[in-house]
Design a protein that fits this description.
This protein is mainly α. It has one domain (2-157). It has helices at 2-14, 16-20, 33-48, 54-64, 69-98, 105-136, 139-157. The model has no long low-confidence stretch (mean pLDDT 85).
Length: 162
């Protein structure tokens, strides 16, 4: 958490060349297969290094490929869709196998309403996040990770958390 927070504090400076090169107006179609593959390789780093989020890894990967912040963020969220869809499908299948009564007609309507509300809230949240990052950069999230990481370490040190 701490290392990731420190990286986020300096990520804007680290990838200034992308913004200086005029890529602030780049479009999604500028993401080639090669760039996509490299960004995917960054995503794998989140599996290897504990505490490195998948989204942070893909955003850093996107910015390393000279994508602007907005495009890197959007691409990161698009990459999450198949993973989340697969995880949701697996979870739904597991629940159906153990408790098929959950999917009765009355419950199914509630599940659809819940999924629809969650989808709308997710879209609004993503747009909010993109606006924050475009205006303030990643430093706010860096400080959040540093404070959270230091708090967890302090709790572990004082043996409050086992």
């Amino acid at each position: 958490m701490l290392v990731g927070g420190i990286v986020l504090l300096f990520i804007d400076r680290l990838f200034e060349k992308a913004a200086a090169a005029g890529t602030e107006n780049s479009k999604e179609q500028e993401i080639s297969y090669k760039k996509s593959f490299i960004i995917g390789c960054f995503q794998v780093l989140s599996i290897i290094f504990p505490g490195l989020s998948r989204s942070a890894a893909t955003i850093i990967g996107g910015m390393s490929q000279r994508l602007n912040k907005k495009t890197a963020l959007e691409f990161s969220f698009f990459l999450a869709v198949p993973t989340m869809l697969a995880a949701s499908a697996k979870s739904t299948l597991d629940v159906f196998k153990t408790n098929p009564e959950v999917f009765a007609k009355d419950n199914f309507i509630l599940l659809l309403i819940g999924a629809s509300v969650a989808f709308v809230v997710a879209l609004v949240s993503v747009q909010f996040l993109i606006r924050i990052v475009q205006k303030k950069g990643f430093a706010l999230f860096g400080w959040y990770r540093i404070v959270l990481g230091a708090t967890i370490l302090a709790l572990l040190y004082t043996q409050y958390l086992h």
